[in-house]
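Input.
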Amino acid sequence: MADNNEPATMDMDDADNFRWQTIAGKRKAQTPPRETTAKKQTTITDYLPPAQPVITENRYSSLTEEVNENNSGNNDNDDDETSNVDNPRQEPTTRPPPIVVYDVTSISDLTTYLNDHAPNGYTMKTLSRNQIKIQTKTAVAYREVLAKLKEKNIQLHSYQCKDEKPFRVVLRNMHFTMDVKEIKDALLEKGHVVRDIRNIKHGRTKAPLPMFFINLAPASNNKDIYAIDSILHMKYFGKTRRLPPVPTLTP
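Output.
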């Protein structure tokens, strides 16, 4: 039997095929001898007491102090609520819309004109194409400045104040031959002031439809119109109509 370290023998017919390689016999893996056996760690049962006692602290003890503070704070809130009842919160005023003036050639003349009608009540900003944006601080100053600029036929544009924006309603199931003046008078008797009313026509055929557009003057009872179930003995269905803000233009 050949030794494992010596190359294996082969036939003469296969010698030509293995001239470039030496084939050695397989070696058996040898397991190293175990010199020592594994031992279990001994369990310690006797512990020495610490030199000084360990001081522990309850980290949730501060919650009782916070509860007491909250209880005292609730009493303060009750006092604040009582004061709020005596002094009701004032609703914030709406900001007036801007006024854009076109083709301004002299800013000093415009500033002088604004100072005469709204001193310290406006701010200005320069836009492109010689446009000036005027932002008034109050609605009163806005109305006064806008009226004075329109009197001078100054080219500008602006938008309607939110306080003056009408409450738009669509009256349905109303015959198109009904007199709009009679509808105005009927709504006025129920406490609603009508600014404008017109019949709705079909977009393609232009035929009159049994619906009317109504613009009510802004008031605290505008939504009460939904409680009305009939006008001039006609049952109707009211619905709010949402439209974009109405611009104010001057030629």
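The CA atoms of residues 229 and 235 lie 6 Å apart.
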